[in-house]
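User: Sequence for tRNA-2-methylthio-N(6)-dimethylallyladenosine synthase below. Tokens please.
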Amino acid sequence: MTISSDRSPAVDVSVPKTYEVRTYGCQMNVHDSERLSGLLEEAGYVRAPEGSDGDADVVVFNTCAVRENADNRLYGNLGRLAPKKASRPGMQIAVGGCLAQKDQDTIVKKAPWVDVVFGTHNIGKLPILLERARVQEEAQVEIAESLEAFPSTLPTRRESAYAAWVSISVGCNNTCTFCIVPALRGKEKDRRTGDILAEIEALVAEGVSEITLLGQNVNAYGSDIGDREAFSKLLRACGKIEGLERVRFTSPHPRDFTDDVIAAMAETPNVMPQLHMPLQSGSDTVLKAMRRSYRQERFLGIIEKVRAAMPDAAISTDIIVGFPGETEEDFEQTMHTVREARFTNAFTFQYSKRPGTPAATMEGQIPKEVVQARYERLVALQEEISWDENKKQVGRTLELMVAEGEGRKDGSTHRLSGRAPDNRLVHFTKPDEEVRPGDVVTVEITYAAPHHLLAEGPVLNVRRTRAGDAWEKRNAAEAAKPAGVLLGLPKIGVPEPLPAATGGCAAH
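Assistant: Structure tokens for tRNA-2-methylthio-N(6)-dimethylallyladenosine synthase:
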């Protein structure tokens, strides 16, 4: 259906409507959800208070399709909202993201109380589709087959005042047999370097001090123009932006991880000594079946080069256990690779069928109990390695960027939490002087656990930053809002390399 204008419709601000966005999946979805929130706020909606649990006027599900039970999870949540919607005239429910792109019309057939279904390529249309559904009193399903606008060009409501995602590309050109992302996100498309740097400079001007470059296959950046060194050039350009203290990126692919990227990381002071490098399997046989274009030797060679250039680098990974056809010998090759690589941490997953992928119909599907046993062995090994690697940090003096919401026990322990340059989580003693998220503190590490470090002594130095100023200003502005339009305090924190909820569709 054609509409006369693509401008976002205005909501009657005399009675502000509230919204809630529920996000599932990888960092790309987190990034998209910030844009969905920004679009809704630009259209006049206000964020529902924390814990509203479906009581908002508009509830948006930003879905993921990489796990086998993704649809069950969505329809279960939609089912729980059905009675609320029936009792609240005017309430609307929208479903977007990868599962929406995949299932399209199926969603409104299974859940006819859904008002809007939109895909991964047209998130900018959400306010228009909500208004159209309201006026026409019928569900609106609009799935674009190609990208209409880079998400980063849309309005945004960032979850952090001092750390931000910056998308440099969308889509993926790989054909991994376990992954449905290329079918849902499309072929890789790169943003112009000038647009990326302009966005980063604007963020820094607002007080952001850390950015994470984001892409489905982030280090393949430049494939559109045939420049294999475009990503390393981008990293070096980030190093010239005054006020930008920390640069991270996720997720690279071993196939495209070249020596010039390692050199750029090592030689650019604000590019952090942290690398998330998905392994998936240590077996050459399984890697071939996965259509991963590297082998164990190549992978370990990259790790060796990174450590030679950056001895203190923290390296994390993704591993799939129980891929179809995986033998005990194949699994032992994964265990060997983990022992050799000495990952700081690993996101380990039991193989889950992705409907529509070649692996879903492969012969040799592994029995659940075998996969579970292998998974437990791998997790135990990685826990041991993670603890050993963290123990090497004891006695080191580190600069931490203070975070909020990262330490769940900070209230009871009277500690604060922050991230080291290599992204390790550190809980530290609260100093006498005020420190804010975004400020930088210097501490000495006194204790190591597998997944965090402690600095139990006094803070050695506090550096108040523009990022901390930005956090303080944002909190003051939110607190001053009238009660009727309260958005709820944001969850502030440095974007993590990968959400723990799934393998993440950016983890390739």
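The CA atoms of residues 295 and 308 lie 20 Å apart.
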